[in-house]
Amino acid sequence: MVSAPITTSVFDLFKVGPGPSSSHTIGPMKAAFDFRQRLTDLQTDLQQQADAIHVHLYGSLSATGKGHGTDRAVVAGLLGWQPETTDPDKLLDLLRDPAQVYAIPVGNRTLSIGPQQIHFERVRYDSPYHNTMVLRLADGDDTLFSEEYYSVGGGFIIRKGEPEIAPGSLSVPYPYGTMTELKAQLITHKITLDELMLANEAALTGRNRTEINQRLDQILDFMHKAVRRGLRHKGILPGSIKLSRKAPILFQQAKGMSQSSDSFLIFLNAYCLAASEENAAGGIVVTAPTSGASGVIPGLTYLAKHHFHYDKATLRSGMLAAAAIGFLVKHNASISGAEMGCMGEIGTASAMGAAFLTRCAQPNGTIGAIEAAAEIGIEHHLGMTCDPIGGYVQIPCIERNAMGAVKAYNAFLLATSGAASFQKISLDSVIKVMKATGRDMSTKYKETSEAGLALSATEC
Q1: CATH 3.30.1330.90 is held by the domain 19-159
Q2: Which of 354, 391, 378 is nearest to 431 (CA)?
Q3: Spatial contact of 363 and 371, defined as CB atoms under 8 Å apart
Q4: Which DSSP state fits 162?
Q5: Secondary element (H or E) of residue 359
Q6: pTM
Q7: Per-residue pLDDT for 64 more than 90?
Q8: Is there a cis peptide before residue 363, judged by omega within 30 degrees of 0?
Q9: Does residue 291 contact residue 280 with C-beta atoms inside 8 Å?
Q10: Hey, what's the torsion of the CAs at 122, 127, 130, 134, to 10 degrees?
């Protein structure tokens, strides 16, 4: 009996939107868009009485929100923009002029919002989640209407007071909440992981198999476009760090070393840096599972397509395996840097990448090898801090994407060496350890820029 089955869509895990952080850009943009929609349903007298909209940011949304562009994302959402269709250049232009304000419709009138209405709160706020934002419709100091939202990683948001989805209200044909339960479903029904994932996705979204495959191809295309853009773009990334892009240099170096055994790793590093640098620049990326980790799987899938020459069907199967691992971490721990540190982002992405590679290389392989690869990927990221310098998703985030991909490849090699059955630690066990580690980790090391490498800002 599965007490709380996973009912997340593959396409909620892999979301398209602007960088640099799904928790700080995509999530707040969605929350602000939701608030805009709710304003239209208010009573006319409240709409007429209001004179301002205020946004209060808490936790890491406050601590690193400036560097992550949270203020721009909130304004974009209030303007009615959606993550997948946002023009990244226009997003970067928002709030560039501190004197400019933006008109937000409230009933048959508009209210202006600018930097003065966005408050980066430094006080401790009583909230069940680290990334909290409160949006208020106000008349002077009086609050006429407000909503509280939590950005919980990967662009997922929760609205305070919103009824939780009751267990069983969303049903899937093959429910599971742990890897143990997932393996039991595969054995009991004598089906493949692909078949299980496709059947559950169809039940959740109403898409048929052809539509699911088409969307998977689109997600891969978005990923690979980010890689290609990053391989072309040179120069300095936005922000005060003035970090130079490295991906084009590495790519040219790799092409000149085609006979060297090192070229393979340099190509992989270049692809991961390319997508991650695009994310840091506020470009369109895919959460995999977050924007901060959006270089790992795009880099690995780009390598798989262009170096291993896997066909579309194989790449899709790998993506489904990666999603299964991402679901398990999100369901039983967290993919949020503010909750788990960087092990929740790069650690999860590395585990997902290891599962992707294992599934692609072994189309008739066992779920045991996929589990072993994912477990190794997470195990060797346990305790990794999230300590971005200056609040920008640049140092150490960009290089960590490349390192996470290399670890994913090594985890795949270790898991497919013929000794997967010798693995002593299960994926379920390591996810429990991950959750406990995140709970015990000091808040300073979880996306606040108050400790670790973030204190090296004076050297940049």
Answers
A1: yes
A2: 378
A3: no
A4: P
A5: helix 348-361
A6: 0.90
A7: no
A8: no
A9: no
A10: -60
